[in-house]
Write a structure and sequence with these properties.
The complex is a heterodimer of chains A (391) and B (310).
Chain A lengths: L4 H10 L7 E4 L2 H11 L4 E5 L12 E4 L2 H11 L3 E2 L9 E2 L3 E5 L3 E12 L4 E7 L6 H7 L5 E4 L8 H10 L5 H19 L2 E12 L4 E3 L3 E4 L8 H4 L9 H8 L3 E4 L4 E5 L2 H13 L6 E4 L6 H12 L6 E8 L4 H14 L6 E7 L2 H11 L4 E2 L3 H14 L4
Parallel strand pairs in A: 14-16, 16-17, 17-18
Antiparallel strand pairs in A: 1-6, 2-3, 2-6, 4-5, 7-8, 7-10, 8-9, 10-11, 10-12, 13-15
Chain B lengths: L9 E5 L4 H13 L2 E6 L7 E2 L3 E4 L2 H8 L3 E4 L3 H13 L4 E4 L6 H12 L5 E3 L5 E4 L3 E4 L8 E8 L2 H13 L4 E6 L10 H10 L5 E7 L4 H12 L4 E6 L11 H7 L5 H10 L3 E2 L6 H14 L5 H9 L1
Parallel strand pairs in B: 1-2, 1-5, 2-4, 5-6, 6-7, 10-11, 10-12, 12-13, 13-14
Antiparallel strand pairs in B: 3-4, 8-9, 8-11
Helix pairs in contact in B: 3-4, 5-10, 6-7, 7-9
Classes of the chains: A alpha+beta (391), B alpha/beta (310).
Chain lengths: 391, 310
């Protein structure tokens, strides 16, 4: 789960990470007032959307007075901010974060995430502050310093100092950086982080180390033990169907094709999408109903698929293991009764309780195109979608 | 022959009284697996389905039944603890079916297992493993499997079933089918399984089913090139998945490599793996590889050399 910059900074501040003072605003009056409260003569006005690359799209501006802050906020709020990560439509700006400016001597990068290979949380640091880490990795991989953390021992101060040394920090800044990294690690571990990125990390002219930007995301599977993090979710940042699916424990990702897919298992779901494309069609979504779904969940999944107006055919591909085919069949029948089914439905069932599942579908009286195997199912779904495409 | 499990494997079911645990314990028993004990804290002394004794702790279950494998159906908040309990009791093979364990819990489990190399963890978030006709530990539908000589290893549960069914339908049985699970931090890797399949005299060829994300397939491909004589058929799911939807790029940066389907397919080909283009052709692809080997006995250097010696 992703959070906004201002939320990440709140979490970091609680763990003792140095962040600039800032106030959130939802309109221009609040923004100007925030600047007056902060005082000083340099301010940052920052659009709060989840996507990165905000600066490139005009979502991060410097202001020289409180009135200036108000004017910038007025233009920024409500605009559709387009960044390399938002897609062509952009994301509407609903909140801006007003921050005090600071005197920057150097800009660095500090990030933290899981290294799948070693199975350890790993810190990455580089001198290339403000540059995306992917870019640095591509052009100057030697500039990225890495430290893997032993989960039993935690991050050791010497490891943090080693990073500071590698970044050629000196004097007070070494101690400041080490403290910063230790606090960042604490915040990450205490909240089940999956990513923490401070880019840029500023070293001020007085040797202070401050997080100018902060990006954090958290483990969805651990939210049950962090109710405060769960409350930071911003529904406006989520695709409505994806949010609806998540409520029912389904994994759904919207795509731009016209064949709705319902599959059990992420691997089979991806392989089914691949096969639809190979057969000349385009999947409308990725939907993994998972292993523990009951009849009600399947019904909800089906409703989400049919609620998409661009869907011209639905392909259900289930290979039952922990998931039983009769449960899927009952869910499909229940959903088809609740929502009027007026597009072709191709179903392929295999595995646990497959006979019962097929019987339930046969008795239901629903118009279902039965498929024998995965290839057959993909071909039939593609043909069905094509037959309903208006020329 | 087989890898990891056979007819002598004695299995504990952790979480045997829960809904998934009880259903699948029953299915495993029906398949013929030696399920010798169940563990549910607070339910010790009861008997599951009038045939399996239930204990409060894994230690007690091991002591009383001599179990050497365990399968975990415990809810995510408690699953990491259950893995550690089984490992601490000295269970040699721990299979964790549970999906949704917090990543940092698994980071700690993996650290523990690094210093206890005698314990092998499979999963979490996996379907388990099966040696057809002998032992089924997990949630896979038993009836699609057939005893035979093809090894199957996969990150995805349902794609494993897909491969197995296609193989069985074409008359190719399986030595062992292993689902290693899709979590970012897990126990057994592709390489761990490939190593065992290569050494197993009961396995002639291997199907390896991977996905986008991570570096496991790349490592496995290099292992195939350097250490395997048996033919390997490979598949990567997610060739059409939109990038960046499931994992951020920071993970890939750390591992220092490409983790897209194209990159994986390319390196697999380079390493001599026959890459299957579509999931419905897994069985057919293996069938053709086996046929071509039969027609060209020289393509099997190990066997050809052995035959020459005779």
């Amino acid at each position: 789960m992703k959070v906004h910059e201002y939320q990440a900074k709140q979490i970091l501040r609680m763990s003792g990470v140095a962040v600039p003072r800032g106030i959130l605003a939802t309109n221009a009056f609040e923004a100007e007032d925030a600047a007056r409260q902060l005082g000083g003569d340099v301010f940052m006005v920052k659009a709060q959307i989840h996507a990165g690359g905000r600066g490139k799209g005009g979502g991060v501006k410097v202001a020289r007075s409180a009135a200036d802050v108000g004017d910038i906020a007025e233009r920024m709020l409500g605009m559709k901010l387009k960044t390399p990560q938002t897609g062509p439509e952009g994301q509407e700006v609903r909140k801006v974060y007003i921050e005090e400016g600071c005197r920057i001597a150097r800009e660095l990068y500090l990030g933290m995430t899981l290294d799948r290979e070693s199975g350890r949380v790993t810190l990455m640091a580089s001198n290339e502050g403000g540059v995306e880490i992917e870019e640095t990795a591509k052009h100057h991989p030697e500039k990225i310093l890495k430290v893997a953390v032993d989960p039993i021992n935690g991050l050791s101060p010497f490891q943090a100092r080693q990073l500071a040394h590698g970044l050629k920090l000196q004097g007070e800044a070494v101690k400041e950086f080490a403290q910063f990294a230790m606090s960042l690690y604490r915040a990450y571990m205490a909240n089940d982080g999956t990513l923490a990125e401070i880019n840029p990390l500023a070293v001020t002219d007085t040797g202070k180390v401050v997080a100018l930007d902060a990006k954090m995301s958290f483990d969805d599977n651990a939210l049950w033990r962090h109710s405060r993090i769960g409350q930071l979710r911003d529904p406006y940042e989520e695709e409505p169907k994806e949010a609806q699916a998540r409520k029912h424990g389904l994994s759904y990702i919207a795509l731009d094709g016209d064949i709705g897919c319902m599959v059990n298992g992420a691997g089979l779901a991806m392989a089914t999408m691949d096969l639809i494309l190979l057969s000349g069609g385009r999947p409308a979504n990725f939907l993994d109903v998972g292993g523990g779904a009951d009849e009600k969940t399947v019904t909800e999944a089906f409703k989400i698929l049919l609620g998409d107006a661009t869907v011209r055919a639905v392909l259900v591909n289930i290979f039952g293991g922990i998931m039983k085919c009769d449960v899927i069949a009952n869910g499909i029948v229940a959903a088809a009764r609740q929502v009027k089914l007026n597009i072709p439905l191709v179903v392929r069932l295999e595995g646990t309780n497959v006979k019962q599942g097929k019987q339930i579908l046969a008795k239901s009286g629903l118009k279902i195109v039965a498929a024998d195997d995965l290839g057959d199912a993909a071909r039939k779904a593609v043909a069905a979608a094509k037959s309903r495409r208006t020329p | 022959m087989s890898i990891l499990v056979d007819k002598n494997t004695r299995v504990i079911v952790q979480g045997i009284t829960g809904s998934a645990g009880s259903f699948h314990a029953g299915q495993m028993l029906d398949y013929g697996t030696k399920v010798v004990a169940g563990v549910t804290p607070g339910r010790g002394g009861t008997v599951f389905q009038e045939r399996v004794p239930v204990f409060d702790t894994v230690h007690e279950a091991v002591e009383r039944t001599g179990a050497n494998a365990s399968v975990i159906f415990v809810p995510p908040p408690f699953a990491a603890d259950s893995i550690l309990e089984a490992a601490d009791a000295g269970v040699a093979l721990v299979v964790c079916i549970t999906e949704g364990i917090p990543i940092l819990d698994m980071v700690r489990v993996r650290r523990y297992l690094e210093v206890t190399p005698s314990i092998r963890l499979l999963g979490p978030n996996c379907p388990g493993l099966i040696t057809p006709g002998e032992c089924k530990i997990g949630i896979m539908p038993g009836h699609i499997h057939k005893p035979g000589r093809i090894g199957v290893v996969s990150r995805s549960g349902t794609l494993t079933y897909e491969a197995v069914k296609q193989l069985s339908d074409l008359g190719h049985g399986q030595s062992t089918a292993v689902g290693i699970g899709g979590d970012p931090v897990n126990g057994t890797s592709f390489v761990d399984c490939l190593e065992r399949f290569e050494a197993d005299p009961g396995t002639d060829a291997v199907i390896m089913i991977g996905e986008i994300g991570g570096q496991q397939e790349t490592k496995a491909a290099r292992f195939v090139k350097e250490h395997m004589k048996k033919p390997v058929v490979g598949f990567i799911a997610g060739r059409t998945a939109p990038p960046g939807k499931r994992m951020g790029h920071a993970g890939a940066v750390i591992s220092g490599g490409e983790d897209t389907a194209e990159a994986k397919v390319a390196i697999m080909r380079e390493c001599g793996i026959t890459v299957c283009e579509a999931a419905n052709l897994l069985g057919k692809c293996m069938h053709e590889v086996l046929l071509s080997r039969r027609q060209k006995p020289s393509a099997r250097p190990a066997r050809a050399a052995k035959a020459a010696k005779k």
